[in-house]
Prior knowledge:
about 325 residues, mainly alpha, 3-stranded antiparallel β-sheet, about 50% helix
Amino acid sequence: MPKSLTKNTNRLLSAEAFKTLAEVPPELEWFANITSGKTRKAYQNDIKAFTQFAGIEQPEDFRKVTRAHVIVWRKTLEQQKLADATIRRKLSALSSLFEYLCESNAVTHNPVKGVKRPPANNNEGKTPAISNEQARQLLNAPPEDTLKGKRDRAILATLLYHGLRRQELCDLKVKDYQRRSGIMMFHVIGKRKKERYIPVEPKTQRLLDEYFEASGHRNELDNALFRPVRNNSSDEGLNKHINPRSIHREIVQRYAEQIGITVDTHGFCVHSLRATAATNALENKADIAKVQEWLGHSNISTTRLYDKRNSKPEDSPSFKVDY
């Protein structure tokens, strides 16, 4: 027998630790496998709400849940006047847990399957997009002669021309802006660690070149692509990734207020630039399957929320009425 199987001198786990890990319930493994912190927090709250409702005290109690329990919970959520989207998310969280339990052979079926969920709004997303003119004004709002202005112009162009999520933009490193097959591309790590390569359009390339020239960090390949321009505590902090809150508060919201976008575009946020990019691409005859891949959507139904080609406001009968 090999020595490695007869001696435990090099083992990293003690026998007690090995036994403890082997006994971890699959219900807890499911939480550990959710990589997104934001999703994990939301799902934890949703599952906690269900466990309190159903009187679940031990992870193993999930194996006693039936479809009847789920239906009564859904009715309770409806009586609480929760939004349809919130109820769908809570049921989705519970269903995701039971799917994992089925895969782990901890339960025989998913009791959430067959439970009717509130209908989704399949016509249009709630995040407001902005007009082409407003997008142009926003791109030109940051000053051209400061490091912060050059960085902010490059950030706004990256969002408006490429449809990145805020966190995807913040996570970019210098080496993620790279040439492939002769074309400059962003290497983007999206939700659930899905990778995609997005060609970078010429204006954004020019703005990135101007930003690199001013910042001097073009060759720092493992450092953040977009980073703070000043740090109140130490210069060392300038090498870190820009904070997602700063993208919203100090860049998108700030310049939008300067040019008046927020006056009557209620709900305007960073995601509005992603919605604008998707809407514009579809209006200019981009293939919806390509847009789905470009945005990193798992389901094309999500992409369709941005497709307004058959519901243009200017075609409304409101503009046909003539008294």
